[in-house]
């Protein structure tokens, strides 16, 4: 048994607590508050846009579990889900095209 412990550097990411990770652009925080887009003032990420729970913004909350998501990451999610959606549509179109060809073969 290899029980590796003590090196969990990404522990801060394990705070989802079943509220569900938002995929794509968040519409509303789990608390019911609307999402606002803000500019980051962090030195590590200057001027990077992010989505944030309106309540948490108003209260200037830090390290809470209200909605927070970088805009670029959210948009990347959107693009990925759109790509998947398009791929699915293409498969469906291909199936329909084949079915149509089969039908035409039977008719003519
Ligand atoms: Zn919230």
Automatic annotation (TrEMBL):
<protein>
    <submittedName>
        <fullName>Uncharacterized protein At4g04775-like</fullName>
    </submittedName>
</protein>
<keyword id="KW-0863">Zinc-finger</keyword>
<keyword id="KW-0479">Metal-binding</keyword>
<keyword id="KW-0862">Zinc</keyword>
<dbReference type="InterPro" id="IPR010666">
    <property type="entry name" value="Znf_GRF"/>
</dbReference>
<feature type="domain" description="GRF-type">
    <location>
        <begin position="29"/>
        <end position="74"/>
    </location>
</feature>
<feature type="region of interest" description="Disordered">
    <location>
        <begin position="1"/>
        <end position="20"/>
    </location>
</feature>
<feature type="compositionally biased region" description="Low complexity">
    <location>
        <begin position="1"/>
        <end position="13"/>
    </location>
</feature>
